[in-house]
Amino acid sequence: MGDHHRDAAVVVAHEILGLTPHITRMKTALEQFGVDVYTPQLTQGPARVFAPSDQEAAYAHFTRAGGVVAMAARLNAFGTSLRSRYRKVGAMGFSVGATSGWIVASEGVFDAVVCFYGSRIRDYPELAPTCPCLLLFAEREPGFDPLDLAERLEEQESVTTRLYPCGHGFADMDNPNHDTVAADDALATAKGFLRAVLLEGKVDDDVEP
């Protein structure tokens, strides 16, 4: 993975589309506040990148690679590999990457986790994160009520939630649901949260994203 020169690192967990230009943009944005950023391929097999219009093919590829549970295991392993090299390690995930981040947040590897529109977090509401978690939901999600889920999850002291009046994928400028105002606010909130935990040493009640 090469040499590092910073005290903290963030692992960005991609969505089913793979390592898209959006992930590259997020890497650049996070590096600006003083952390090393990693964007590993978290699905099994040859790396593939899909266009936002190729959701069905991307989902089929993701499912063949083991789905969200397998992705979470790879994210956990990658985070573990960084622990001896950094004082603090965080994760930021999008969609299935966010759900993977939620899963591993209860496993003691990461110091902070940010989840952008992890709609399948609803399948794992019983998990109890061992680190501060920031969950950024889109209000317009088919199949479930994000507000209800956010209220349930925020009963845990380590969880902070925010909802945006947008559709799934709003933070990605290449997604049809992109919303510039929401995307800018969500990214600023995520960066502030990660900075507070990873660089300033704040935890749980001290964290104000």
Automatic annotation (TrEMBL):
Gene3D superfamilies: alpha/beta hydrolase. Residues 6-197 form the Dienelactone hydrolase domain. Pfam families: DLH. One of its GO terms (molecular function) is hydrolase activity. This is Dienelactone hydrolase domain-containing protein.
